[in-house]
């Protein structure tokens, strides 16, 4: 016999069962993987409470018990099994909770239509409700765990009772850089690479390791059913770009900022990075384009991308000017006329690279990039990967963010300008043939009633006035830490003080491939002809050396110039000449030399290809006081714009006119609470004081708006009694009105103390869940006052609501300034749950201007942490067939390389700093340089790389403070020059294309000068057919 005790009456016929979720803590491992959903699956019934729920985020289980305590909707508690959720898991909970709420009506309709058995209908709907409730409470309790952890870490800086309560002083908070990061976890990706094979090719360039993976679509498959052909490139084991997402990033990156430029005015574009040639592909779509300048560290990326993606670098397009090598040094060689002249500047670099690079001690990389822009209309775009840049480089900035990207799932781009306010500037449709983005792109096809201009906007910053830059655009400084006074570390930062390091000499190197050089068929030109041609270009020849090989009908001439040197390698049978032009002074004469040399051989721009590199120059080659070199490098002062004046700080008094203006501003702003039956809480001063905002809202008699006043507690305000009273009043109001609050309004009469209590009460996720709707608005309107402390704590309160209470996107914090009768005012708004907040806010301000004559300006709109996107599917996935691959294929097949060239920069690294020394610590002279070249040539012959290298004609010439060694032989040539300081440059060409030959030559050269090490290597094929 068995005696059974029950906690409730059991009707006759009801099945009795044992709860599968009610067991010890570990449940023999079941707590990690077995819960209410599994019970329903295996046993066919839905458990009553307590329930155990097991969810998986990033394939990591998240397990909790949901138990009932007391009666009513809010009588549930959550107990985490082992670990509470982390940030990613909390975002996962919220993302799926919102998804469940979105599909609820559709699910009910589908169940009614497709499920016949009443019991099954009931069970499905019950399970859905239990799942939604479980995720809701798990989300609320995940926030409580974080709150409790933060409370334990608080430090008492106020009175003991106040400290015990943990009140916030609302001072500006320092935000650790990682707190601004957009997490990469926005959905459960699964095995997104399952269809890839490879890597099909691995190669090590001079700078990094590249890997290419391919997926080829089955030619017999339906293109709408199977995956498209796709290629992905990895750089140093990290995925960099894929065909499938190419238009999603590059079209937005290029054409979105360009949409703020006038029609037919995209004339001059500069881009930094973009070595995969995809940026230049997009830029060349503009028929108005006159010049596009690209800076890329590694030309190996471009050549490999051409091979695998079919993206052409367009070396043969006279509008395209590539600079390879260190971009910071390239800036120093740019003509001064480049700065302040570009309509569009695109910075396609990793965020940390942008932040850390410098041109020199006085100029950051990004400052130099900004100075390229036309100050009257220029727009810049910057890629960001982990977080938007904290530094606001110009007056107007928008951070774009979108989650419609295959594989990467998300993408961020920042656009900025010193002249274009993106909020008010019109966008222009340039009528381009794009695959993914145009001005009609919307993130939600079901919402066509809002301005799509803001669909990709995440943050907006207007830093044009000094007070706005101070308030919104200047990050709070990190807290000061006690300096390390450990004597063991006194010299840590002085160890390299005696070493002279820096940029050193610079030279501009032009690779010029002259094809259709018809005059070569008339005979090989003599060196004197080249000398005369260079004289026309304003260059002075010091000496030259020439060799002609009758056996294979080739010739090479090297001309040493006062300003640099020129090498010409000629193949008359192919009507082709390969030019090297290195200038270490008179940089402005490079274009003239190019034109004259092409004309000399009967060619022209249309039949040539070219690109540039930054190499070492020559100390002492430029005479002091001479202006013949032309102005180069960025200006040391940024171009100035005309920032708007700061709003005046009005007196703290509240005139009737000011009250009316604020009332109107707040009245129109209530439109941001878009629920049709809204309940709004107004937090006021003491009950004996006027509460202007509450009085206005009651007086206006807003339709379908319920207003509930909350007055400041009697003294002492900062107390447990006040907190309890405020909590009870909030809960009671929700019960009375049958709805949670859609809005919170901070009245001008509210004191700091009551603001602290409000923050403390709402600092618990469970209570917020009880009293605040998922989508709600908090706002504060105040006069511009000399009482900065008063204004500061109000901004601080809204900041905390935004940063900790709303938290996840869409979660906006807006700062609005305006002018009206009686003076200036400020409106602060926090909006949670409104994807189209910026559009709605703009409509409110337009209404204030058009109807009431009240002018205003948005100073900042900041979104929260990016949201997890459940069931993610991009709207479009690109494949190879979506692009014109034929043009690239024809060029690839037409290439005929005739040799290999290596440009090598050698130097001495400082023993302490590890940086290249400006001057060698050892003595170097011309005979040593010549011996090093001869030794390397002898080794080439001895090792069998080139039988004629040992017979090369070698000559050495003093130049400036250094020297130049030139060597010519049948199978190639070498030019080595020492700048007289701390740089040796080697230019080696051989018809033998083996990489090992070049590597060995450099190593043998270094063996003769053991203190040298390789600082830079640029290697490229030379030949015709647009190599």
From TrEMBL:
It comes from the Eukaryota. The active site is at residue 348. Residues 179-349 form the PABS domain. Residues 625-655 are annotated as: Disordered. GO terms for biological process: polyamine biosynthetic process. Keywords: Polyamine biosynthesis, Transferase. InterPro entries: PABS (IPR030374), SAM-dependent_MTases_sf (IPR029063). It holds the Pfam family Spermine_synth. GO terms for molecular function: thermospermine synthase activity. Belongs to the spermidine/spermine synthase family. This is PABS domain-containing protein. It comes from Corethron hystrix.
